[in-house]
Design brief:
Bound molecules: thymidine-5'-triphosphate, magnesium ion
Helix content: 25-40%
Strand content: 15-25%
Shape: globular
Strand order of the largest sheet: 5-6-1-7-8
Order of helices and strands: EHEEHHEHEEHHEHEHHHHEHEEHEH
Structural class: alpha+beta
Distance between the termini: 71 Å
Largest sheet: 5 strands, mixed
Length: 397
C-alpha cells in the first residue's frame, strides 16, 4: 500500500479492567472475573472473556451477573490503577507513531498514514502495536486498521479478543455491504429499530435512500450515516498536547526575582513531576520551564534531552539550566515545570555520546525507587531532599 493512502489504526484493550486484575493477581487468570461491587445495587463495569461466555457484560446489574455466573469472582474496581496502565499504553503507542488520539481509558486512534516506509505493511504496523502494548503491560488488545476512523473502530471489534483486522481500501465496499447497522458508531437501539423499519439491515442498504429521506427520519445523523455508507469519514485523528505531558506549577506567596527561591520551587516541582513519571512507568524527553511575571506576561522555555529522564534531580538540572539562560525582566508570580515527549520506561534508550549534566545514571534511578517505596509505605513527607528541608523544621528534634 502506498504511503499517501490514509490509514487509521484503532486500538482497544480486551476486557480492560478485568485483564488488569488478572495480570496483577495471577490467581484470577483463566477465571470468571467480574469487575464491580457485588452489592444489590452494584453494576458490572466489565467481565473477563471467561465470564462473558455465561452472558455477563458491562452495565449489567450485579445480582443478574451473579445469577448467570455463580462461580464469578467479583473484584471491586481500582480506577487509579487502570488510569496508570492506560497512561503507559498511550505512551507506548506514541513510540510507534506520534499521532495518537486517546479516546477513552482503553482505546485510541492513531494516524499511521505514511508509517509504511518505516514499519512495513498495515498488518505489520498492527502487529507491532499489539506486541509493544503486550511487552509494556502484559495485556492483549485488539487492533483495527482502515482508511477512515469509523471503519477502523469497527475493524478492531471484529476479531476480539486479541484481534488484528485490516480493511484495505479495495475491501471497503464489501465490508459496508455486509455490515449490520447495529455495528455502526452512533446507531443505538432506537435508531436501529427505525432503520429496520425502513428495510435497512446493513450499512450498504442505506445507499438506497436519498439524503433528504434520511434527514427527514434521522435528523442530523441522516447525512452522516449516508456518508458512512459511502465509506466517507473525514474526521481526523486529533492529537492533544495536554494528554502527552505532565506538569507542576505554583503561584508564589509573594512575587520574587530571587533565583535561589525560584530554584528551590523548581526542585520541589521537579520531584513531584518525577514521582508521577515513575508512578506511570514513564520517562520524559522534553522539559519545560514556565514563568508568569507580575504583569501576567508568560514565557515557556523547553529543552530536549539526549537521554529520557524520570528522576527529580535530572529534571531539576534541566529546568535550572533553562532558568539561568533567561534574564528575568521583572518579578515572577508563578513558576512551573513540565515534562513531555513521554516514553515508557522500558523503551530502548539511545546512549548519549557526551554524558551531560542531565544524563541519568542508574544509581539515581535506584535511589529514587527506594525513596518512592518509603514514601508509599510511610507517607510522602517522610523522605525529602535535604535542600527542601526548612532548617526550622528540624529545630528541637
Ligand atoms: P470497553 O472497551 O467497552 O470494554 P472492555 O475493554 O472491558 O472489553 P472489550 O473491549 O474487550 O469488549 O470499556 C473499557 C473499560 O471501561 C472496561 O474495561 C470497563 C469500563 N467500562 C465501564 O466502567 N462501564 C461500562 O459500561 C463500559 C462499557 C466500560
Ligand atoms: Mg476495551
Amino acid at each position: 500500500m502506498g504511503a499517501s493512502i490514509p490509514m487509521i489504526l484503532h486500538m482497544d484493550m480486551d476486557a480492560f479492567f478485568a485483564s488488569v486484575e488478572q495480570f496483577d493477581h495471577p490467581e484470577l487468570r483463566g477465571k470468571c472475573v467480574i469487575v464491580g461491587t457485588a452489592t444489590d445495587r452494584g453494576v458490572v463495569t466489565t467481565a473477563s472473556y471467561e465470564a462473558r461466555r455465561f452472558g455477563v457484560h458491562s452495565a449489567m446489574p450485579a445480582f443478574q451477573a451473579r445469577r448467570l455466573c455463580p462461580q464469578g469472582i467479583f473484584v471491586p474496581p481500582r480506577r487509579e490503577r487502570y488510569a496508570e496502565v492506560s497512561a503507559r499504553i498511550m505512551a507506548t503507542l506514541e513510540t510507534v507513531s506520534p499521532r495518537v488520539e486517546p479516546v477513552s481509558i482503553d482505546e485510541a486512534y492513531m494516524d499511521i498514514t505514511g508509517c509504511g516506509r518505516l514499519f512495513g505493511t498495515p498488518d505489520r504496523i498492527g502487529r507491532r502495536v499489539k506486541d509493544r502494548v503486550c511487552e509494556e503491560t502484559g495485556l492483549t488488545c485488539s487492533v483495527g486498521i482502515a482508511p477512515v476512523k469509523f471503519l477502523a473502530k469497527i475493524a478492531s471489534d471484529m476479531e476480539k479478543p486479541d484481534g488484528l483486522t485490516v480493511i484495505c481500501p479495495d475491501a471497503v465496499p464489501e465490508v459496508i455491504a455486509a455490515l449490520p447497522v447495529e455495528k455502526v458508531p452512533g446507531v443505538g437501539k432506537t435508531t436501529a429499530a427505525l432503520l429496520h423499519g425502513l428495510g435497512i439491515r446493513t450499512l450498504g442498504d442505506v445507499n438506497r435512500y436519498s439524503e433528504g429521506q434520511l434527514s427527514a427520519r434521522l435528523g442530523k445523523f441522516g447525512p452522516r450515516l449516508l456518508r458512512m455508507a459511502r465509506g466517507e469519514d473525514d474526521s481526523p485523528v486529533i492529537v492533544s498536547e495536554e494528554s502527552r505531558s505532565m506538569g507542576s506549577e505554583t503561584t508564589l506567596a509573594a512575587d520574587t526575582m530571587d533565583p535561589e527561591c525560584l530554584r528551590r520551587m523548581l526542585l520541589a516541582q521537579s520531584e513531584t513531576v518525577a514521582r508521577r513519571l515513575r508512578r506511570h512507568g514513564l520517562r520524559a524527553k522534553c522539559i519545560t520551564l514556565k514563568l508568569k511575571h507580575d504583569d501576567f506576561t508568560q514565557i515557556t522555555r523547553s529543552t530536549t534531552l539526549a537521554c529520557p529522564v524520570q528522576s527529580g534531580r535530572a529534571i531539576h538540572a534541566a529546568v535550572v539550566e533553562l532558568l539561568s539562560a533567561y534574564r528575568l525582566p521583572r518579578p515572577v508570580r508563578l513558576i512551573g515545570v513540565g515534562a513531555s515527549r513521554l516514553l515508557p520506561e522500558g523503551s530502548p534508550v539511545q546512549q548519549s555520546l557526551f554524558p551531560s549534566e542531565t544524563a541519568e545514571p542508574k544509581d539515581w534511578d535506584q535511589a529514587d525507587r527506594a525513596v518512592d517505596a518509603i514514601a508509599e509505605k510511610f507517607g510522602r513527607d517522610t523522605v525529602r531532599r535535604a535542600s527542601l528541608i526548612d532548617p526550622e523544621d528540624t529545630d528541637g528534634q
